[in-house]
Amino acid sequence: MVAHLLRLKLTLLRNGLRRSPMQLVGLAIGGLYALGIVGALVVALVLLRRADPELARTAVVLGGSAALLGWAIIPVAVAAADMTLDPARFTTFAVPMRQLLTGLALGGLIGIPGLATVLVSLATVWTFSRGPFAAAAALAGAAIGVLSCIVLSKVVTTGTASLASSRRFKDVSAIAFMIPLVLMGPIVAGVGRGVAASTGFLPELAGTLSWTPLGAAWSLGGDVASGRPAAAAIKFLIAVATLAVLAWCWKLLLERALVTPPYAGSGSRKGGKMGLFGLLPATPAGAVTARSLTYWLRDPRYAGSLVVVPLLPILLVFQGSQSGNYGSLAFAAPLAAFLLAWSISADVSYDNTAFALHLATGVRGVADRLGRALACLALALPVVLIFAVGQCFFTGGWAELPGQVGLSLGILFTGLGLSSVVSARYTVAVPLPGDSPFKKPPGNVGQTLAVQFAGMGILGLLVLPEVGLIIAQLVTGNPLFGWINLAVGPILGLALFVTGVRLGGKWLDARGPELLAQLTINR
Amino acid sequence: MTAAHPDPPTDPVVHAGLVPALSIRGLAKRFGEKIAVDGISLDVPAGSFFGIVGPNGAGKTTTLSMATGLLRPDFGTAVVHGVDVWTRPLEAKKLMGILPDGVRLFDRLTGEQLVTYAGLLRGMDKDVVAARVGELLAALDLAQDAGKLVVDYSAGMTKKIALASALIHAPRLLVLDEPFEAVDPVSASNIRSILDNYVASGGTVIVSSHVMDLVQRMCDHVAVVAGGRLLAAGTVDEVRGSASLEERFVQLVGGRSHTEGLEWLRTF
What we know:
The complex is a heterodimer of chains A (about 525) and B (about 270).
Chain A: H1 2-19, H2 21-47, H3 53-77, H4 97-107, H5 112-127, H6 132-159, H7 161-164, H8 167-182, H9 184-197, H10 201-209, H11 220-225, H12 229-259, H13 276-279, H14 284-298, H15 300-323, H16 332-343, H17 347-351, H18 356-361, H19 365-395, H20 401-425, H21 445-462, H22 464-476, H23 479-522
Helix pairs in contact in A: 1-2, 1-4, 2-5, 3-5, 3-6, 3-10, 5-6, 6-12, 8-15, 14-15, 14-19, 15-16, 16-19, 16-20, 19-20, 19-23, 20-21, 20-22, 20-23, 22-23
Chain B: E1 22-31, E2 34-44, E3 49-53, H1 60-67, E4 75-80, E5 83-84, H2 89-95, E6 96-99, H3 111-121, H4 126-139, H5 155-167, E7 173-177, H6 185-200, E8 204-209, H7 212-218, E9 221-226, E10 229-235, H8 236-240, H9 245-253
Parallel strand pairs in B: 3-8, 3-9, 6-7, 7-8
Antiparallel strand pairs in B: 1-2, 1-4, 4-5, 9-10
């Protein structure tokens, strides 16, 4: 039965790859990436063999504890738990519980994260192969450690299955996860500095962790190698007990999950709250604006980019604090304008086949384009203005403000116009409605890249006048160029905005069905 | 395919002197190697309750998509109440209410917002929309869940809210692709009585389905489609003759496997 489960997992994996070659490419890229990390870690562990046993022990215990935590947190945080062998699918088969548990646990090892963990854990055996006992202890520790990782991850995902399948949780976790991802640079730098400042603290931390369920298994080899067999024996008991308790918890949760399918419903709610539809004009364009704005706030795929934008100045300030020069802050407003304006170039792709409603109602292309662009503008305009003023406030360079505002508004309006044209003609591969914003579906990757690069290139050409004026101001130091830019940016931008909305509308009227057909393929 | 391919029905069921609600001529569509629809011609009389039946993959959805302006045909024309769908799409779409099958909805809106959105997109007046949304949701048993996001609806509720979006502008022709899929029996009979009243007051309904019993009880006209071709069309009584619609359908479409074998299923 266990072999059956493992074969099932492999078959599912293989058939998934056969269905779309792009998935194979994705797996290959992920595999190479993992191989690089695994390779580096294995080399480090091999080198640690010649190091002081205390140092080796500290490194292995800390790394192992981190791996265990990662296995518990990451699947829930990114809402990307591996559900190929979802226990709920076995409810109708009478699989004996013991075999189901073994099969699912070993099945968890198949896949990139599982294999990587196994390989790195096995490398720790080499680190401590300073004697037959130490090596044996390290091997036992690695085996218990890897199994604990898998079982802990299963406990967490099974325990939170009904939570994780609720739409609200998925939405919130997807957006919340965006923040550490964007701030990765500052966080890593901060942690790095903290670690460097407190190197004396790490062995102590490792020492403490090695007595807890987190680190016990990983310290076995180190303890034996540095001549503390008694401590190792006690930690072995701790590690085995941890694994046993985790397995027991998993068994209980699984037994419960098999008879109570996850419940994701929510109570009924009476109507009467029209939200933005009540506030905005009751015209086709107004309705599209209200719908788009509602999506910007409610759909994590849009809300994710709204969360990222305020983090932009934080990143730039951080970068400035590293170099001592805050000049790059001047990019905040134009960059935000570009990011927000360009984000609606995939608007129809985000709709997916829901776009059929626009086609069925026969809404005019211009109303469709204008509504979407105005929704984005309503959010982007205040952000861009605040960034421009905030930048001058921060650096004290008020003379730059007119030029900054002119350039940013120019980019914003031009970008919205261009996006209106692009999304009326081309679809790109984006996460499907309801999916995590991180989940790029395999799709027409070639077209996606071509559209992105060509679009950005054209945008660059269209805003050349504003960019030229900014450069002229910077070179000559003459504030007049800034004031000219304040006029040129919005005027030229608005002209291109109107042109873009009109042209996009015309194309949409002419090619709506073709666009829907493309979306149907992407579905 | 045993039955011969009937060319454009020589005797289309035309109600004396009336323009058909939907008239399609030689519609054809190819997806890559596969010919999904192979020249279908059909007249749907105004004021009829018209069923389109066919096995899975027969080309029902493709035909209806081409007839309603959602999918551009490779060949052929579709005319709604005298308005060509592909040369005057905006006018034709005003006359039609469409419930497409297998497309998503803007499901991050509440049910109420979605139907309102469909109305406003059609350029309708705000107050008219508001009044009709309330009535439609009540008639389709959705009033209790009007403020819930559509993404949290069950499959049947989703069908019903899509139907409400198709009805909001009081179209003359309703094209419903699989309207009863996943809908509970109580709601289904509510929907049926809404549709019956609608037809009684002069509207035309086209439904696609593969539930023969339902079509036989509900519709007055029927067309049988298989393999992208029209096998039979006319009033339900004309098409089924003395047999039941289901028997006639199986006879037309073929492919019934004889219930031999599976003896072990009786041994327990």
